[in-house]
Amino acid sequence: MTTSLDHLKEKLPDHARDLRINLGVVSAEGTLTPRQRWGTALASALAARNAEVIRAVEGPIAHVQSAPPESISYRGSARGLQDVWIAVRASLREVLENVTLADLASGDLPEEVTKLAGSSDAWQQR
C-alpha cells in the first residue's frame, strides 16, 4: 500500500501540495489502519481528478479476466463484448475524472453524475 501511496503523491498536481504532504504523514506504517490509509488514498485520488491516480491505488480501472479489455478477443455472437467492456471502462473514467473532493464536500456533484445516480435503476443491486 505504501508504494501505491508514494506513486499517488507523485501524481498529485502542484496545487495539491498540502494533500501531498498530508499523504506522506498518513502513509507511514502504524499511523492509520490499512482501511483508513485506503480511504485517504481514495479521497486523494478523487481530489486529484485523475484516473491514473486511482490506478495507482487499486490497479486498472476495468479489467476483464485480469486483462485489459482491448487485449481480449471474442468470437461469434460474443464479438460485441469487447466494446461493452471498453464502454464500461470509459464510463468509470467519466465519473472518476470529473468528481472532486470539493464536489463531494459541497454536495454539488457534476450533472452527469447526478443524472446517473438519479436513475431508480442505478439503485437496484444485481
Describe the structure.
With 126 residues, the protein is an all-alpha fold. It folds into 2 domains: 59 residues; 66 residues, no CATH class. It has 7 helices and no strands. Helix 3 runs antiparallel to helix 4. The longest helix is centred in the last third of the chain and has 16 residues. The radius of gyration is 17 Å and the shape is globular. The two termini are 30 Å apart. The model has no long low-confidence stretch (mean pLDDT 75).
Helix and strand layout, with pairings?
Layout (H helix, E strand, L loop, with lengths): L1 H10 L5 H10 L7 H15 L2 H8 L22 H16 L4 H6 L4 H8 L8
Condensed summary:
With 126 residues, this protein is mainly α. Helix content is 58%, strand content 0%. It has helices at residues 2-11, 17-26, 34-48, 51-58, 81-96, 101-106, 111-118.
Provide key terms for this protein.
126 residues; 2 domains; globular; mainly alpha; 58% helix; 0% strand
Sketch the major β-sheet.
none
Mean pLDDT: 75
Element-level helix/strand string: HHHHHHH
Quickly count the domains: 2
- Unreliable stretches: none
Shape: globular
Fraction of residues in helices? 55-70%
Strand content is: under 5%
Would you count the extended β strands for me?
Answer: 0
Termini Cα gap: 30 Å
Derived from helix and strand composition plus strand pairing, the structural class reads mainly alpha
Rg on CA atoms, Å: 17 Å
How many helices? 7
